Amino acid sequence: xxxxxxxxxxxxxxxxxxxxxxxxxxxxxxxxxxxxxxxxxxxxxxxxxxxxxxxxxxxxxxxxxxxxxxxxxxxxxxxxxxxxxxxxxxxxxxxxxxxxxxxxxxxxxxxxxxxxxxxxxxxxxxxxxxxxxxxxxxxxxxxxxxxxxxxxxxxxxxxxxxxxxxxxxxxxxxxxxxxxxxxxxxxxxxxxxxxxxxxxxxxxxxxxxxxxxxxxxxxxxxxxxxxxxxxxxxxxxxxxxxxxxxxxxxxxxxxxxxxxxxxxxxxxxxxxxxxxxxxxxxxxx
Length: 285
Fold this sequence. Notes:
The protein is built from eight helices and 14 strands. The protein is an alpha+beta fold. It has two domains: 10-100, Aminopeptidase; 128-256 and 269-278, Aminopeptidase (3-Layer(aba) Sandwich), CATH 3.40.630.30. Strands 1, 2, 3, 4, 5, 6, 7, 8, 9, 10, 11, 12, 13 and 14 form a 14-stranded mixed beta sheet that branches.
């Protein structure tokens, strides 16, 4: 990769495992919740970019391949290097990694104008809910097809997620499955039709992704994952109006932010009855 500024010591190169401590410091400076391990998971799931000033890491971006689509995320420029067009350069390099695939991202209101100039359009919202979990009801595992999932279900989960998103989810889903400390699904006639994961993330744990045929199924999955998580900090990134915010608030998950879902290229559509209700993370989709 060539230098973004031939008159300076700035250069772009692939992000490496040796950069993770410095990358984590960049997100901490923005008060983002990501742990170092969350950064490491992104690096396992896709390609990262490092913008360096000499030996100092001052910017990052990720491109995560997902079949015919690619997710772009964690585009960060250190505060003392703002206003120099470096965020645009990182985005352009990440989009170059995406190639001809449809590019997906989650943007703040402040970042959206740049992404629109790069060809992105708004397709919806993400509602970030979080707080100390307050389980409300027994999920009745073992009834009406609701059950715990294990490694033997991995292939079926990959197929269901691809159908529910309208694009491949490997290797991103694999990273989430490897980190999950709980996984539940709903089975009908011997076939999985819905599932959700819970895993460590940020300040505590995160519920996602969530795939279901309808809101009732999605709620059953969330209740099942909250049942043994009382008073633990939990986060859920809901897609559009997938959940009633009051229903989530009653379970301790208050809405704290609503960033924008954006796409460049042909927007993916679910294949079949199952669709995505909650994200893995905003960067992973």
